């Protein structure tokens, strides 16, 4: 009986000793460094592979040393900074940006960060400028963000849909018709489409009596919409005394107005109306109702009415002071559209003296 009690006492003592040994291993885990690098001790051994230490992930190679920079664990690429901490989100390595997901794995291809799309190539590097993906062209800004709607690349305008895909051909944007060449560049001037010559203003929209039929229609942000069917210029509004249309000062036309010697521009027609003429037959005959301030009067190069309204156009603001100094000031207005938004700028101003 005494021997049995003794054996129990010895067994209990050995159990306590074993527990004490395990606790001391945990307590002894610590960072160590030598000339080769850092490692993390685990009792008499060291950490290998991924370890979460203080809520931060670190990676240790097979010899136990902590890794920094790019790490391939056999399943994906990860990035650890100089302290060894694994990074998530955007990573700047040298001058190149990379994107890692919440688990730290590097992403390639299209990346959605918040509500903005970015594109990274097969090596994970974020791309900027034009990108060809599955046969479609996309444009990403200098910060990598994919653009939609109008895109200005070195002075040339392009249009991309809400998905970012560059558009070509005849399209309608906010009710106006544009022609984009095979390379996506917006066209101006006279363009032959399927054997028919059409005229496009300097701002890109089709003008004149003949408007091409669009293949697609979009809002300015690139969202697909139903075509407006308002592209026929035969429904111009007419004013009395000259058969001319007039539109508000947010309109555009690509034709400059130039006075003839400053005097022989306007001719009194009666009923408080004047006709305007210009050089090179560009402005030609136009009736200006002198009691109407700040309106636009638009004709094409043939002197015919151009039925245009809304933004994205050139225009001429008409200011009349016929009752006082007998002058009419014509301001050539250009609508500017860039990444900061819309603005209007007066680029030329002509004072026409009433005879």
TrEMBL record:
Keywords, in A-Z order: Hydrolase, Repeat, Signal
Coiled coil: none
Pfam families with a match to the protein in the record: Choline_bind_1, Choline_bind_3
Annotated Cell wall-binding repeat ranges: 47-66, 67-86, 87-106, 107-126, 127-146, 147-166
Keyword Signal attributed: yes
Family matches, as Gene3D superfamilies: Cholin Binding (2.10.270.10)
Region (Disordered): 218-256
GO MF term list: N-acetylmuramoyl-L-alanine amidase activity
Signal sequence annotation: 1-29
Enzyme Commission designation: 3.5.1.28
Enzyme class: hydrolase
Protein name: Autolysin
Gene that specifies this protein: lytA_19
């Amino acid at each position: 009986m005494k021997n049995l009690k003794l054996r129990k006492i010895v067994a209990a003592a050995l159990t306590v000793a074993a527990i004490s040994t395990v606790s001391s291993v945990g307590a002894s885990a610590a960072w160590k460094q030598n000339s080769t690098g850092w490692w993390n001790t685990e009792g008499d051994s060291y950490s290998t592979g991924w370890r979460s230490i203080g809520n931060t992930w670190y990676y240790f190679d097979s010899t136990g040393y902590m890794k920094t920079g790019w790490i391939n664990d056999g399943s994906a690429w990860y990035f650890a900074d100089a302290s060894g901490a694994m990074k998530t989100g955007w990573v700047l390595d040298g001058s190149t940006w990379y994107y890692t997901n919440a688990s730290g794995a590097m992403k390639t291809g299209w990346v959605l960060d918040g509500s903005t799309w970015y594109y990274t190539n097969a090596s994970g590097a974020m791309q900027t400028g034009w990108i060809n993906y599955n046969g479609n062209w996309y444009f990403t800004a200098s910060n990598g963000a994919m653009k939609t709607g109008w895109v200005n690349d070195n002075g040339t305008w392009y249009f991309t849909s809400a998905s970012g895909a560059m558009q070509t051909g005849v399209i309608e944007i906010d009710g106006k018709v544009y022609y984009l060449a095979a390379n996506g560049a917006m066209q101006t001037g006279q363009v032959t489409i399927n054997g028919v010559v059409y005229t496009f203003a300097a701002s890109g929209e089709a003008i004149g009596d003949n408007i091409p039929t669009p293949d697609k229609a979009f809002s300015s942000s690139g969202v697909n919409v139903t075509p407006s069917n308002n592209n026929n210029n035969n429904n111009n509004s007419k004013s009395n005394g000259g058969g001319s249309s007039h539109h508000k000062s947010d309109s555009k036309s690509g034709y400059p107005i130039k006075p003839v010697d400053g005097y022989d521009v306007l001719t009194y027609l009666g009923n408080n109306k004047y006709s305007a003429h210009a050089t090179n037959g560009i402005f030609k005959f136009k009736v200006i109702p002198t009691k109407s301030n700040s309106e636009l009067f638009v004709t094409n190069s043939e002197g015919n009415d151009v039925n245009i309204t809304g933004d994205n156009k050139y225009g001429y603001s008409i200011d009349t002071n016929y009752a006082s100094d007998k002058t009419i000031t014509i301001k050539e207005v250009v609508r500017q559209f860039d990444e900061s938004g819309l603005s209007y700028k007066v680029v030329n101003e002509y004072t026409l003296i009433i005879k």
